[in-house]
Amino acid sequence: xxxxxxxxxxxxxxxxxxxxxxxxxxxxxxxxxxxxxxxxxxxxxxxxxxxxxxxxxxxxxxxxxxxxxxxxxxxxxxxxxxxxxxxxxxxxxxxxxxxxxxxxxxxxxxxxxxxxxxxxxxxxxxxxxxxxxxxxxxxxxxxxxxxxxx
Length: 150
Description:
The protein is mostly helical and about 150 residues long. It has helices spanning about 5-15, 20-40, 45-70, 75-90, 95-110, 120-130, 135-150. The longest helix is centred in the middle third of the chain and has 24 residues, at about 45-70.
């Protein structure tokens, strides 16, 4: 099984052969982000850590796009969104709202949670099960909403 880093490096080579300079530049950014994280930790990253790095990169792109939209820089916002879309192809498929709700309901039952004060216990059960397939903000929002409904 190839790592996410190896896949990205391979795709950089393919993009270079195809003379797709925009894709090469973007993929190199992602390769660099993973390599910097690995150097910081002084070891190779495992698959979940690589996914976490790419999710952070995706989040940066989305936030930058929103900032550029607010600053009337539509062309730069579009570029950030294009990079985020490219990142999506390397990340696990995101959970549907229904799948997320089912996981939240099961995690609440498993944690024995009864009120919003139990959110930490629910998140402790839920986060490993989600494993990069949902945004943290969406995850915590779904848990809070479900706990308020109890």
